[in-house]
Design brief:
The protein is mainly alpha-helical. The chain has helices at 2-52, 64-70, 73-104, 111-122, 125-136, 141-146, 158-183, 187-195, 200-211, 213-226, 230-238, 249-258, 262-292.
């Protein structure tokens, strides 16, 4: 028994050494990634937190910067415009591809149509901005067609143009997602419903919409994320200070960066990040409950 106990002890000691050596080797491979995360994420996070809770002289101010931010008319305008844009643009960017997908699903040749709808995704942002400028500036196509000298990007119509640009840019991606989700619905469901005398409109709401919920959720999340990327096109269309109807949170944050106002920049970044994270958590909780009833 003593010899057996010694052998087991020796085996455990050898195994622990081997395991420790393997862990050390594995950790050494993680060091470059951990260093990159620390350098580009962790350290900047705490630096930003320091700017958000101090004034320009480095004195601790607590939540005073956040209070000043919410009292800023420019920040409130940017927040209202961003929220309004998402409320209008996201549902339309989902509904339009969904309707098109249902109309095109039974076509035998959709390859070329998919290519046409996907083409806006591969067009460079600068080319997109130039195209819309050629349409809506004072000497653009629309003004020439209507016989007026109006820069539509500097009027209240700028918001409508921004929504149209967003829908056009993301139509192809959402269309592919809608077609993929529609293809996963068994044909038997529609055949049985037709035998029962159900019309196409009832099939759409009773079958198609219900079984498209997982795909719609992905479309909604991606559309939510992409709605913050519209700033690239709007910046190239109208610069740092566009018409007030399309002055977004990204414009506000970019202007704070240009002015080197670190306090307002980091404070607004924390607020936007918190809001986005809260929305994303809420989306996934709702999706989980809709699937599993939890």
């Amino acid at each position: 028994m003593n010899n057996a106990a010694k052998i087991r002890t020796r085996q455990k000691s050898l195994l622990s050494r081997v395991t420790g050596k393997e862990n050390a080797i594995a950790f050494s491979f993680l060091i470059p990634s951990l260093a990159g995360v620390a350098l580009f994420y962790v350290i900047p996070f705490f630096m930003s937190l320091g700017y958000a809770t101090t004034d320009s002289s480095g004195n601790f101010t607590g939540i005073e910067n956040f209070a000043n931010l919410f009292n800023s008319e420019a920040f409130r305008l940017a927040s209202r415009n961003t929220f309004r844009f998402m409320v209008v643009a996201i549902p339309l960017s989902i509904a339009i591809p969904l309707v098109i997908a249902c109309l095109l699903f039974n076509l035998k040749r959709m390859g070329r149509l998919k290519t046409i709808f996907m083409s806006p995704l591969v067009i460079p942002t600068a080319s997109t901005a130039f195209f819309f400028q050629s349409l809506f500036t004072s000497n653009g196509f629309v003004s020439s067609l209507l016989g007026v000298n109006t820069d539509w990007l500097q009027t209240d119509h700028a918001f409508t143009i921004a929504v149209g640009l967003y829908i056009w840019k993301n139509l192809g991606f959402n269309l592919v997602l809608a077609l993929a989700a529609r293809a996963n619905i068994p044909k038997e469901y529609y055949e049985w419903s037709a035998v029962e005398g159900m019309g196409k409109i009832r099939m759409f709401f009773k079958i198609t919409i219900i079984y498209l919920v997982p795909g719609l959720f992905i479309m909604f999340v991606m559309s939510f994320i992409n709605s913050f990327r519209i700033y690239r096109e709007l910046y190239m269309l109208s610069g740092n200070y566009p018409h007030q109807s399309i002055y977004m949170l990204q414009h506000y944050m970019n202007n704070q960066f240009m002015w080197l106002n670190r306090q307002n920049l980091t404070t607004s970044a924390f607020v936007v990040t918190f809001v986005i994270a809260a929305f994303m958590v809420a989306f996934f909780i709702i999706d989980k409950k809709s699937h599993y009833g939890e």
